[in-house]
Specification:
Layout lengths: L7 H10 L4 E9 L2 E12 L3 E6 L8 E4 H6 L2 E5 L11
Antiparallel strand pairs: 1-2, 1-5, 2-3, 3-4
């Protein structure tokens, strides 16, 4: 599979589009460890962006650089809607 070519400008534009919206964040911590949480992109700056987690156990905000997103160590996606009930059966 060929990876889609991105550059830093594309990553910045995408994160700016997520400003003040709910996102799902996955952070690769290394050694097969990942951290996932849902939050809101609360700040967009020239070199980094900040995410305010919804979880009450997190104090404050977390910040990530656009290069971390470009390299794949941080994945930011729009939050998926949670369905109230199951469909079908």
């Amino acid at each position: 599979m060929i990876k889609k070519s991105n550059d830093l400008g594309t990553v910045k534009k995408t994160i700016q589009d997520y400003f003040r919206t709910q996102v799902d964040v996955t952070v690769n911590l290394g050694r097969n460890k990942t951290q996932r949480f849902r939050g809101e992109v609360s700040g967009v700056y020239p070199a980094l962006f900040t995410v305010r987690p919804e979880d009450k156990n997190y104090l404050g905000k977390t910040s990530y650089s656009y290069a971390e997103v470009l390299c794949g160590s941080v994945i930011v996606r729009p939050a998926e809607k949670i369905r109230a009930g199951k469909e079908g059966n």
